[in-house]
Amino acid sequence: MVSVSMTVNGKAVSAKIDPRTLLVQFLRENLLLTGTHVGCDTSQCGACVVHVDGLAVKSCTTLAVACDGSTVTTIEGLAHDGALHPMQEAFREHHGLQCGFCTPGMIMTAVDLVNRKGHTLDEHTIREELEGNICRCTGYHNIVKSVAAGAQAMAGHK
Amino acid sequence: MSETSQSPDGPVTRSPLQEVGPKGHVHQPLPHDSAASHVRGAAPYLDDLRAPSGLLHLAVGGSPVACGRITRLDLVKVEQAEGVVAVLTSNDIPGRNDISLGHGDEPLLGSQTVMFFGQPLFVVVAKTRDLARRAARLAVIEIDAETPLVTIEQAEQQGSKVLPDYHFGVEDNAPPLALADLRLSGQQRIGGQEHFYLEGQIAMAVPGEGREMQLISSTQHPAEVQHCVARVLDLPEALVSCEVRRLGGGFGGKETQATQWAALAALAAHHTGRPCKIRLDRDEDFVLTGKRHDARVDWEVGYSANGQISAIDLNFWVRCGCSADLSQGAVDRMMFHADNAYFLPSARIGSQRLRTHTVSNTAFRGFGAPKAVLAIETVMQAVAAKTGQDPLDVRKVNFYGHNGTLTPYGMQVESSVTGRRIIEQLEKTSDYRAKRQEIARFNAQSTILKKGLALTPVKFGVSFTQTHLNQAGALIHLYPDGSVHLAHGGTEMGQGLFQKVAQIVADELGVPLAAIHHAATRTDKVPNASPTAASASSDLNGMAARNAALTIRSRLATFLSEKFSCSTVEIQFAHGQVRVGEETLSFADVVRMAYQARIQLSATGFYKTPKLDWDRTRKSGRPFYYFVWGAACSEVVVDTMTGENKVLRTDIVQDVGHSLNPALDLGQIEGGFVQGLGWLTTEELVYDQHGRLRTHAPSTYKIPLASDVPDQFNVALWKEPNDEATIYRSKGVGEPPLMLAVSVFCALMDAIGSLAPSKPVHLDAPATPEAILRAVDAMTRPNEEGS
C-alpha cells in the first residue's frame, strides 16, 4: 500500500491504496464519485475522462499514484453553487445525450477542448477532437451542437 | 451540417384523425427525463449504486475451446485462492440449468459439452472483483476438443440447425420465374454487429427474507430475468423480483442476454446468503454475449425491361450461433421485411436457421429486418444496372400501391401513399436528379475517385410478431400532496420512453411534469411485462399509462360531480388545477378531498394492441398493427485504389406519426442511422477457424465516431398522424431509422458500379475498404458477371 494525496473537486483527499489502483477506481470506489464511468476498460471510449491539472485524461488507464499532488476535476466538480457549468447546460438544452453513460466523459472532453482551442469552434474541429469519445446512441449530431453552444456560452462565463 | 428542420413541406391534416392529446406536454420537444442528472454525472447506473453491506463479486471461468467434451474441470486452486468465498458449477444449481426462452438448449453454466469459445463453465465468488478474476484463471480445464462449425457453409453442409426451416409466399416459384422476360441471380454476405452499449452487462442479486431474491439488472426484459432466476433457483416466481431504473444502452443486446448474468448473481447470492454483483469487462462482453445475426442471402429475380419485378426468390442462411435464443422471432421479422417497400407479385421467402459453435446471436435494433431491407435494395440496384435505369426509377416502379398492396405474407399495406409521398419529397429536397447528373459528370472526369448516390425507402412493421407480447401494464398512485407516482413495464435505456410516458400522464391528469415521479421498472409493481423492444414501447406503455390515468381522473371527476352537483363535463383538469363549473381547486386539494371521501387513489392500466392475428403455422393473418415509412438519400465518394470512402451528405425524411416528442424522435433517427452506418461500413466481426472472436474490443472493432458522420446531415420528420388509433396517433421510432443507412451502402454500390455501368455490383456487408476493393476488382475483371 502507498499513500496518495490529491485535490479532487476542490477538496484535499489522501488515502493508502494498492499502487496498482487506477485513478477511476480511486475516484469511484474510494471517493464514491461515480459520475465518472468505465465503458471499455481500455481508454478508447472516453466515458472515464476527467481533468488532471487542467488537462483531459482517461482515468481508466491512469494510475492514481501518478496523480499524487495533482488537482483533479470530475464531472461532479464542474457545477458551481448548484448552477450547471455552461457546457453541462448546453448538453441538457441541445439534447446532447440519450442513455447518458458517455455524457460525463463527453462534457469533460468538451471543456478541455474549449480550454485549449477557444470559444469559437468549427464543426470539423469539434468532430476531430471528439475522436476519443464514443457515443453509441445519438449519432453525435446533438453532441456536436451542444459542444459548439457550450463553447460559446463559456466565453461569457469566466 | 445544416440545421435540422422539424417538419416537412406539405402539412398533413385529416380532420377525423385530429383527436390529439390535450395541450401541454405531449408533442413538445422536451429533454430526456434524466438530462439534468446525466450532465452532472448524478444519474446512477447499477455500478454506481452504493454497495450493500457484505457485497461479493463474481467472475466467470470459460471454455478455452469452442466445441468438445469436458474431461476435467479442476477448481481446487480456484477455491484456495485469496479472497474466494465460493466456486460454483452446474452441479450447484438447485433448479434447472436452463436460461433459454423455452427451447431448453442453453445452460446457465456449461456441463459435459461446450457450445462456444468462452462459454461460462463455472463462476467464482470473491471479496473483490479483482480477486475473483485472478482466481478464475487458476482453473484446470481439459476438453476433448472437436472441430467447431464456425461458418454458415460449415453448418449448412452438416445440416446443423437451431430451428426448423421456414418459408412463406408462393410454394413453387419456378414457373413464374421461368415466365419472366429477364432473370438475374446473386448472392450476398451480410455481417453481424456487436451492440457496444456503453454500459456493459451487469447485475446484482440481494437475498431477502426467507427465500426471496431481489435482482437489480441492466436488462431490457426484467420479467424474463425474474422468470429465469426462479427457474434456476427452483423458486416460485412470486419470490423473485427484478428492478431496473436505467440502462446505459441496450439496442437489443440486453433483451435475453442480460439474463445469464442476473441468474449467476442470484445463484451466488443463494449459496452465500450475501449480495452478489457481476460486471463483465468489455472483452468478456464481446466474447460472451450474442450479436446481430450474420447471414448469406441467395436470390433470384424475374423482371421486365422497365425493371418491374414479376417473381423473386430470397433465401436466407442465417448464423444463429449455439442456441435458438430469439432466432425464431428475429429471422421471422427478417422474412417479413424481405419486400421492404415493394409489391412482389410472386415471392418465395425462405430461411434456414443454422447452429454453429459460436455465441448465440440475438436481438439487435431492427431484429432481422435490416438484413432483408439490404438484400432487396441490393436486388433493386442490380435490376437497375441490368436495365440501364436510374435505381430510383426501378424502386418507384415496384413501390407498393400502383400494382398491388398485398405482402408475401398476406397482409395488406394500407398506408403506401405515405411512403410514396415521403420518397417524392425527399427526391426534391435532396436534389436527387440534379445531383445524379453532377455525379455522372464528376465520374466521367475522375479516374480514381468515384461518387455514388442512392435514395432508398424503409417500410417497417410495428408490433411484436409473437402476438401475445403486444400487451402492457402501468400503475399510478396519487398522494395527498398532489404528487404522482408512475410505473409501467417499459425500461429506459436512453430512448426517452420515460419522458414520453410522463408527458402523457401529466396531460391526462392535468398536472405539471414536475408533479410526476417516474419510478424504476419493477416486476413486483407491473408484472409480466414484455421486453422493451420492437419499437412498440411508447405505443404499449404509453397507452397502458394513459388508461391508468383516465381511470383515476374519472374517479375524481365522478366524486367532484357528486360533491359539487354538476356534470362531469363541467370538470376540467389542467395546469395542476381542477375547474369545477365556476370554481377552481388545486389538484392537491382535490386529491386530499377524494382521500377523505375514501376514493381509491391508485389505478392500474392495461393495453393490448388490436387487430393482430398472425398465425405462423397457417402463414396467414396480420402480424403488424401499422407500418412506419421513411427514406434516406446519401451521396458518397469512393477511392477505387484503396477502398477508402466517405459519406458526403445524407438527407432523411422519417415518418413518426403525430410525434409524442419530436426532439427525442430526432435523436432516435440520427442515432439509428449512424448505428446502421457502422453496421454497413466499419463494424466487422471476425471469427477464426477455431471459433474465437478476434475483434473483441473497440481497438479492433470500429464503432462510428463523430468524424465518421456525414458532413451534411439533414433530418426531417414526417408528422402525418397514424391511420391507426395509437397513443395520440404517434408511431414507433426506435428501429426503423437504422435501415436508412442502407442508402449509404447502395450509394457505395452506385459509385463502384460506375466502373462498368451495365454490370451488377457484388458488394458484401460491411462495406469495409477490403470489401469495396473486392467489388472493384470484380467490376474491372473482363468477362465476369459482377453479381
Please provide a written account of the structure.
- The complex is a heterodimer of chains A (158) and B (787).
- Chain A folds into two domains: 2-77, Ubiquitin-like (UB roll) (Roll), CATH 3.10.20.30; 86-154, DNA polymerase, domain 1 (Orthogonal Bundle), CATH 1.10.150.
- Chain A is built from five helices and five strands, in the order ββαβββαααα.
- Chain A has helices spanning 23-30, 86-93, 103-117, 123-129, 141-155, and strands spanning 2-8, 11-17, 49-52, 55-58, 71-73.
- In chain A, a hairpin with a 2-residue loop joins strand 3 and strand 4 (55-58).
- In chain A, helix 2 packs antiparallel against helix 5 and helix 3 (103-117) packs across helix 5.
- The N and C termini of chain A lie far apart (40 Å).
- The model of chain A has no long low-confidence stretch (mean pLDDT 97).
- Chain B has 787 residues and is of the alpha+beta class.
- Chain B has three domains: 2-30 and 471-607, Aldehyde oxidase/xanthine dehydrogenase, molybdopterin binding domain (Aldehyde Oxidoreductase, domain 4); 47-146 and 195-288, Aldehyde oxidase/xanthine dehydrogenase, molybdopterin binding domain (Aldehyde Oxidoreductase, domain 4, 2-Layer Sandwich), CATH 3.30.365.10; 294-465 and 616-780, 2-Layer Sandwich (Aldehyde Oxidoreductase, domain 4).
- Chain B contains 19 helices and 27 strands.
- Chain B is globular, with a radius of gyration of 27 Å.
- Mean pLDDT of chain B is 95; it is low at 1-22.
- The chains are: A alpha+beta (158), B alpha+beta (787).
- Chains A and B meet through helix 2, helix 3, helix 4 and helix 5 of A and helix 1 and helix 17 of B.
